[in-house]
Amino acid sequence: MQERPETSTKRRKSASAETPSVKRPTTVGKTKGTNNSKQEPSGSLALWAKENDIPAADLAQAYGARVTPAAVEHRKTEQINAGLSEHVEVGRYIAMDCEMVGVGGAAPNNANNDEYSVLARVSIVNYHGDQIYDSFVRPKEYVTNWRTAVSGVTPGHMATARDLETVQNDVAALLKGRVLVGHSIHNDLKVLFLDHPRYNQRDTSQHPIYQRQSPALKKLAKEILGLDIQGGEHSSVEDARVCMLLYRQHKNAFEAEHARRWSHLQPKAVTKVESHKKDIKSKTKEGKNKKKSKK
Fold first, then answer.
1. How far apart are CA 210 and CA 182, in angstroms?
2. 198, 264 in Cβ contact below 8 A?
3. Count of C-beta atoms within a 10 Å radius of residue 243
């Protein structure tokens, strides 16, 4: 009896058995145009591909020829002014970027004509570049320079902007106990009027590897990631995603340098031995107090 030819389904199963399974990054929607259009990749596609030795040709086949490994975080859709994203896992690592506008300057009662920056938008993403938080912020001061060509913020955005106190509380809750990634992150914390422990900060502008090239985020994105960003109006979501990608690119080196510089600021973990000693001391004190009370 003649054997039946192997079906395509069986061939696919046998091929997959030979190839180690690799978890693909999550998708973020479908490309417009046809019902059978392929899903666009997540923003962390480039790093995922590099970490798993996925060739660019395979990526093009899976996601469409227009997508290359260098097409990363900024391709994802932004949910502008959406506030907290309820269905996105935050995780331990987050990246933040802020947009600012100018106040002072030619404002009334400003004799020195000094302009300074205040917060107008803040965006936060998780380790995978998924948007966690985005909000416009209504300045308390009179804005003299919206810097729209760079900040992307207009007076019209203020109609739905949140007040500074609300945004402060939201961001402070997200920062608590997490590692914060950013580019010159002290500037963002300054306009938010928030503090964050130095041992929980990872600043891409201070990392030695990146300082040897160019600390400007736009140039680092181009030289390290092959991305063109900030061509016109800035997007704080896009910039936050790029910061996270830069951190992930050299995460081990970041952590080694961080441990060398800031280990003395890390809160010391209580070992089991130390915890046991404390328990013995507390029980000894309790015993002594009981004896005194009996006397």
1. 13
2. no
3. 29
Report yes or no: 111 and 71 within 8 Å, Cβ to Cβ: no
Q: Which two tokens stand for residue 188?
A: 């963002």
User: Which single residue is written with the structure tokens 């199963």?
Assistant: 13
pTM for the whole structure: 0.66
> Among residues 218, 203, 195, which one has the least CA distance to residue 262?
203
* Residue 241 three-state SS: helix
Which of 146, 254, 151 is closest to 206 using CA atoms?
254
- Which pLDDT tens digit goes with each residue over 76-109? 578 999 999 988 999 999 999 999 999 987 655 5
Contact 77, 30 (CB under 8 A): no
Look up residue 132 and give its two tokens: 């966690």
CA 81/CA 135 separation, integer angstroms: 4
Strand 131-138 and strand 162-163: the pairing is parallel
Of 64, 59, 61, the residue nearest 25 (C-alpha): 59
The number of residues in the chain equals: 295
| Cβ neighbours around 270 below 10 Å, total | 10
| Angle, in degrees to the nearest 10, between helices 236-249 and 251-262 | 80
